[in-house]
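Researcher: For the annotation table, I need structure tokens for Tetratricopeptide (TPR) repeat protein. Please keep the output clean. Sequence:
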Amino acid sequence: MTYGEKIEYLRHESRDQKAKGNFERSIECIHELLGILKEDRIALKIAAYEWHRMAGIYIRMGRPQEAEVAARNALDTYLRNRALLHGEWHRDRDGTIAEYTMTLSRCLVDQQRYEEALPWLEESAAIYRLKGEDDPFVKELVIPRLNWLRPRAEAQRKTRASSPSVD
């Protein structure tokens, strides 16, 4: 099998296994794929996407710590890919950044780490709002999530601030 054929085989196999509910095998395929990808722009874009898919699978499995690791890897890999554009890119308008930061926020919320989740969701919301406040996705998902998260993050911050630090 050529390099390209192996990539396509593993991507296809991972999707098939996920569709069958065999999440562990799907994740194994993604890990195998990530292990063979080279460090070029196209491979980095594929890797970021696959890390993001893995985060979603872990979320679905109820494993938020592993989902967080995959979500952070997706974001980091995507940023490495974008760095290869030599400044011809605007993070504050990138829909993929919005998607990946929203996923990372969800992973942190699932661990009740609201204070850490809020800045990621705010970044995502700022990008999605470029679609317009009347966009159904913004109106029905992004804004309600922000409204739900903000008081929890503030309460967590206050609790942390009032707790004596343990050294």
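Researcher: And a one-line annotation?
Model: DSSP finds seven helices and no strands in the chain.
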